[in-house]
From TrEMBL:
Renumbered residue ranges of the record's region Disordered: 161-181
InterPro entries registered for this protein in UniProt: F-box-like_dom_sf, F-box_dom
Record field: compositional bias (Acidic residues): 170-179
Location of the F-box domain: 1-46
Protein's UniProt name: F-box domain-containing protein
Amino acid sequence: MPILELPDEILCHLLTYAEDTDFPNIALSCKKLRILAMDGPLRRHILLIRNPARLSVSLSSRPTRDILASQNILRGIHIKQHIQQGQYIGGASSVRSYHISCRLERQMVSIRIAKKLKVRPDWTEMVERGLIPEEMFVMQEEFETKRRWKTYQQQQQNQRLLLQQQQQQQEEEDKEDEQYSCYRKQPDLWGQCEPMQVDGKDQ
């Protein structure tokens, strides 16, 4: 038997089990169900009897404020102390203080992340180390350009180090030449000495 051939009383009873968010879709299905979904006594029963009954059942099993605060579901500044003292925790000042504390916490987290990002290596170096795949970057040409530029910078740095080593070596050689230059400038005294005679023989 099709559902639309049932009596209106049975259809209304079945609609009492539908959720509030389902009624717009039910009203769009056909003309008969749209008339029943817009029925005044049906909607009054749902709003005044069914929904409060469901709410009372769910509230009876609702955890206390202490449990919610211990599970970090109900949050606020000194909220456990306020709950123990029986104070109202939904005031404007407490809500404002909680939002300020959340904002400060986010700022501290952003500062820590910024410090970590400053010491993070360049993404080209991370690709070369194999930490992240090269396919993550859409611009292949940009990656090649940056890698060539980094290679060029490394070569320039090596050349500067080599020039510094050469300059240091040249300075050391110049110092050695200055130390031995005084000996080169002295006259050859051995050539000016006359041979000595021992027992009538030249030495």
